[in-house]
């Protein structure tokens, strides 16, 4: 059948399938944080300092993790908080062959007021549910996942993020994998959800700002109709070749372009923002790629930047979500309209961009003194950082009810 004759019911098959999965009724057991059992370690490990913990070749995790299994026939089992350690998988597990794996990344912050917080966890949990639906993994109620993260932090937070270390953080990694041990391209009927806490290096202030290299002509990170908007492992592995080559050339990340016009999408695994003066009226505009074609991730830091900029920068600054191209960046630099740029994400937080290399040309972007961000970058980083670390009381900063040690 010719494309023009495609029946209406066959349009947007992926969206329709996800919607059916969302509304499907089931008698299987739901994910229930209230059923969490505790099996605490009898041999807690020494807590390293931040520099030691982030300088080795292995990620350092805290003493415990949360695990919960799922089977299509019975639903979610009771979650367990237990000592951190290896997982047991059969060599034929679905996730090892068919990329049935999704995850999230967020941070827990030890505030300057002594309290432990996580930043907008509801957004991460909702996004993980969406990612699970996209790759045919089991769904769950997002608030239950948030409760499990809080429970793990309540146990390990006091010792691994002590009050004596204000301004420090831990990385939270909930992961969902298909574990059914049967080869064949099919939706897995068994899965494992686990949550771990780890150290992560600070990446938001590279010397001289972040330097980007545009993606090669023969490589894209995501495409319309794909899964660039979902946080699945299959989005990351194929990007490593270009990233490794860029780092060999002295750059930090890839600025991923899309289409014949070279639309700017993401900086590595972070969302990308440009601040410039608009041609014509020369008014200040902050522009970032839109979500409507599902090319990019709906980043929690991205969303937060947009929210605070629209609320606090005033009417003299236009905050825009639209498609824009690398040629527009080249033109803005040539005309002296390029003011600043930054990447936004969990790992890099809000990181000033100082240079973009594109097809033999250098786009040099102004940054602040000592390699810090420009005026808007610095303001946004301060506003969001204040919420994360408790200098500003805000609903986005969810306080963890810590257990006494």
Automatic annotation (TrEMBL):
Its EC number is 2.6.1.42. GO terms for molecular function: branched-chain-amino-acid transaminase activity. The keyword Signal does not apply. One of its GO terms (cellular component) is mitochondrion. It comes from Claviceps humidiphila. It catalyses: L-isoleucine + 2-oxoglutarate = (S)-3-methyl-2-oxopentanoate + L-glutamate; L-leucine + 2-oxoglutarate = 4-methyl-2-oxopentanoate + L-glutamate; L-valine + 2-oxoglutarate = 3-methyl-2-oxobutanoate + L-glutamate. Transmembrane segments: none annotated. GO terms for biological process: L-leucine biosynthetic process; L-valine biosynthetic process. Keywords: Amino-acid biosynthesis, Aminotransferase, Branched-chain amino acid biosynthesis, Pyridoxal phosphate, Transferase. Belongs to the class-IV pyridoxal-phosphate-dependent aminotransferase family. This is Branched-chain-amino-acid aminotransferase. Its cofactor is pyridoxal 5'-phosphate. PANTHER family: BRANCHED-CHAIN-AMINO-ACID AMINOTRANSFERASE (PTHR11825:SF69), SUBGROUP IIII AMINOTRANSFERASE (PTHR11825). The modification N6-(pyridoxal phosphate)lysine is found at residue 231. Pfam families: Aminotran_4. It is an enzyme of class 2 (transferase).
């Amino acid at each position: 059948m010719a494309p023009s004759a495609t029946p209406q019911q066959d349009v947007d098959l992926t969206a329709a399938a996800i919607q059916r999965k969302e509304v499907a009724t089931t008698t299987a057991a739901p994910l229930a944080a209230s059923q969490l059992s505790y099996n605490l370690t009898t041999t807690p490990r020494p807590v390293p300092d931040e520099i030691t913990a982030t300088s080795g070749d292995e990620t350092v995790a805290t003493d415990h993790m949360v695990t919960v299994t799922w089977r299509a026939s019975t639903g979610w089992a009771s979650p367990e908080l237990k000592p951190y350690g290896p997982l047991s998988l059969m060599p034929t597990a679905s996730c090892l062959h068919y990329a049935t794996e999704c995850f999230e990344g967020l941070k827990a912050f030890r505030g300057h007021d002594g309290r432990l917080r996580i930043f907008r966890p509801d957004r991460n949990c909702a996004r993980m549910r969406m990612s699970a639906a996209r790759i045919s993994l089991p769904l769950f109620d997002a608030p239950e996942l948030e409760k499990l993260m809080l429970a793990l932090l309540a146990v390990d937070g006091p010792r691994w993020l002590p009050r004596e270390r204000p301004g420090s953080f831990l990385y939270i990694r909930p992961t969902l994998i298909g574990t059914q041990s049967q080869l064949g391209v099919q939706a897995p009927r068994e899965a494992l959800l686990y949550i771990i806490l780890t150290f992560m290096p600070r990446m938001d202030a590279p010397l001289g700002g972040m330097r980007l290299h545009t993606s090669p002509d023969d490589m894209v990170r995501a495409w319309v109709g794909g899964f660039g908007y979902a946080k699945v492992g299959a989005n990351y592995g194929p990007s490593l070749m270009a990233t490794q080559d860029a780092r060999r050339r002295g750059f930090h990340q890839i600025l991923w372009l899309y289409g014949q016009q070279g639309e700017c999408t993401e900086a590595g695994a972070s969302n990308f923002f440009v601040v410039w003066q608009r041609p014509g009226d020369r008014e200040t505009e902050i522009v970032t790629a839109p979500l409507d074609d599902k090319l990019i991730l709906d980043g929690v830091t991205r969303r937060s930047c947009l929210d605070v900029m629209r609320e606090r920068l005033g009417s003299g600054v236009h905050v825009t979500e639209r498609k824009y191209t690398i040629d527009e960046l080249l033109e803005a630099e040539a005309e002296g309209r390029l003011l600043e740029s930054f990447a936004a994400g969990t790992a890099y937080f809000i990181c000033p961009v100082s240079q973009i290399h594109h097809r033999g040309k250098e786009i040099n972007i102004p940054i602040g003194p000592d390699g810090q961000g420009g005026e808007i970058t610095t303001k946004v980083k301060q506003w969001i950082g204040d919420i994360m670390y408790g200098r500003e009381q805000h609903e986005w900063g969810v306080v963890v009810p810590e257990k006494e040690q």
